[in-house]
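For the sake of transparency, this paper describes our internal protein records without simplification. Because each token names a local backbone shape, the row as a whole describes the fold. One such record is reproduced below, unchanged from the form in which we store it:
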Amino acid sequence: MVRKNGFAPLEIGILLAVVAMLVLGTTVYVVRTKHNYADETVDQTSETSTSGPTAEASPSPAAEQSTPIEEESSEEPTPTAPAETYSPTATPVPVVPTATPRPEPTVTPTPIPPTPTPTPADVAPVLKNLMVDFAPYSNGYAGAFKFEASENQLFYEYGVLVNGSNGPKYLWTFEYHVKKNAPVYVVADGIVQSIAKNDNANDYEILIQPNANSSWQVWYDHVNSVKVSVGQTVSAGKQLGVAGEYSATLSRTELMIRKWDNATQSAYTVCPFEVFDPSLAATYKAKVNKLISDWESFKGGTTIHPNNEYVSPGCFYTQHDE
């Protein structure tokens, strides 16, 4: 419906309803205010009555019943704003830069000093042969030895007395008269220390020692066609050369074992069997005895070598001071 002047009936009704609600709300508010004031008065009275120090007041039933029943308010509740939810702000973790590895310096290892080579002990030579070949007599020969009737001896023992160019003298060697250019051999392992030409003969004298620091000496005298050199390490059994000159039909060579004493500046010689390899000594002693026996038989059974005087086959002494 369209109105020209004034209110329509519907609008008037709504207005009256609003006025009625306002009047009713005001009335309720006044009643509640009075009621609350009465309650506060009662509470103050109670507090006054119980403040005495002697006795506690028991609450009266009337007081308990005087609690008013709270009327429902027609006011619309004030909306409560929702509590703010706080999301924790993430603290950024600083990114640690990757460390660039620095090259480690190369450590040069300290060289381990070499283990010093121990000084060789002053050991005696160990003989493994007697320098020339020994064998039973057959067809004029006994190994390197050539049997000639014109000779008195082919083997001269250690410590034998002989007539030299300057008169009688003792030999402190094994001296052999052998066939021409008979081979001679190294008797013990060692190092060649010297090779010297003999002044009174067209041959050489060779010195071999067990090691460079040894005071023991093995002398090979009257050697030709020398097959070793100074400083060379040699082994027993190696050919040293050939026997030196002696006569038109025979050669000769000598073997001497000598010990030098630095403390006393003196020397002595020993019988070759004093420093012989124990595993071979008996074999070579038998060879010497066989040569002596064969030679004496060749010479008609005459005793030429007084072997009953030997301390070892071919030795009148074990050692002798020079």
